[in-house]
Amino acid sequence: MPDATPATSPDAGDRRPLFESAVARLAPVLPLLTELGERFAARGHELALVGGPVRDAFLGRTSLDLDLTTDARPDDILAAVKGWPDAHWDIGREFGTIGLRKGTHVVEITTYRADTYDRTSRKPEVMFGDDLAADLVRRDFAVNAMAIRLPSLEFVDVHGGLDDLVARRLRTPSAPEESFADDPLRMLRAARFSAQLGFEVAPEVRAAMTERAGTLEMISAERIRDELSKLLLAPAPRAGLTLLVDTGLADVFVPELPALRLEVDEHHRHKDVYEHSLIVLEQAIDLEGPADGPPESVPGPDLVLRLAALLHDIGKPATRRFEPAGGVSFHHHELVGAKLARKRLRELRYDKETVKAVARLVELHLRFHGYGEGQWTDSAVRRYVTDAGPLLPRLHRLTRSDCTTRNVRKAQRLSRAYDDLEVRIDRLQQEEELAAVRPELNGNEIAEALGIKPGPVLGEAYTYLLSVRLDDGPIGKDAARAKLVDWWEQRGRE
């Protein structure tokens, strides 16, 4: 294995300890990388580890990706690795990428690129390059434009990426206006990296994002959705979301978020809904369980919970009313918000289950506030559980997170009330197995009791018996059958 010392590149001069630490972080994969580097060198080709894996090594993070770049064309890549990987695939061959698997490691090797862009559609004309420096300048940020040549371990940093890492700063290798013109999605990546890494965007980058926010419209909903999801799943999404709102990018693909910045009336009769939503998101994140925890702990990071926390109040701008007595109301904002959330997430091409779950949580997030001092009947508690269904653990956390009052006594009162509700839910679940609540007569028994065949009427009868089960709890088959017959006779008389 080569000596883990940077070559005499001026980029690394006073950063030797950082480089040595980064190489140590890469130690588990260095034998594999060195072997690949030697294979390419033997055929007269360059090979370098590039981008995220290099950045993460300097940050002391373990990267799951091994991204390599080379002057070799796809056919030459395959020739250089022939007989080496356990498997390979060339689904990205058109863009110069060959994927490999060696043991548990997945490697992607991509030919140097020197693409040109159609700036009206963001479709690149794929052009292969011959120079590492030219390949690095086309990358999104300087911190992702560092490379380590293989097998020599020469550190290449022509754009000051390591200085940016130390300063926790995001800059583009080329002028940000040019970089974002080539690919507007890079503006979302800036927000995502600010959330994932805790970096500040440079002033010129922020200015370019603001100036070019409208160009995001040419990016597909799927690509935008993926970046938004990655941002929300980051350790501290607030920084990235704030950047999206402040630069106007959010207006393009999730305008409901900046719309939460309702003007504060002079008497301060309602809270800042935008700030409240960010706090709720942060509090919901704090209530997530460990990644390897059981489902009922809501293992984090949980996209459904985080989307619901962010969007739970998006119905407020449309429902705000100033009351004659001086207050402010948002009647039915949870129902309006659920519709808005459903529409927005569908437009962003989220899957049906995610859309359904987030909209349902938004719809249910106020239900607890009717609980008061525990006046709910057991029937109301059962309905709370059954309406939430498998979303109940998330609803627990969303409801608790929705308390952002600075009134300590009020906060403690709400917390105690929800503690009491959860105790009642646990008791009823143990007594009645609420998670699997269903009528005490099945479809066949209902049909037999009423002398009817399967069809819409049988569905009505089933729904009626379900409401009996929720209202009265378990009453036994005979009593359920008697109530069903009474309902049927009453229905016949109407």
TrEMBL record:
GO biological process terms, semicolon-separated: tRNA processing
InterPro entries per UniProt: Bact_CCA-adding_enz_type3_sf, HD/PDEase_dom, HD_domain, HDIG_dom, NT_sf, PolA_pol_head_dom, PolyA_RNA-bd, tRNA_adenylyltransferase
Keywords, ordered alphabetically: Coiled coil, Magnesium, Metal-binding, Nucleotide-binding, Nucleotidyltransferase, Transferase, tRNA processing
Residue runs in coiled coils: 411-438
Enzyme Commission (EC) number: 2.7.7.19
Superkingdom of this protein's organism: Bacteria
Cofactor(s) listed: Mg(2+)
Enzyme class at the top of the EC tree: transferase
Domain HD stretches: 273-417
Alphabetical list of Gene3D superfamilies matching this protein: Beta Polymerase, domain 2 (3.30.460.10), cca-adding enzyme, domain 2 (1.10.3090.10)
Single GO molecular function: nucleotide binding
Annotated NCBIfam families: HDIG (TIGR00277), tRNA_CCA_actino (TIGR02692)
Protein's name according to its UniProt entry: Poly(A) polymerase
Organism: Terracoccus luteus
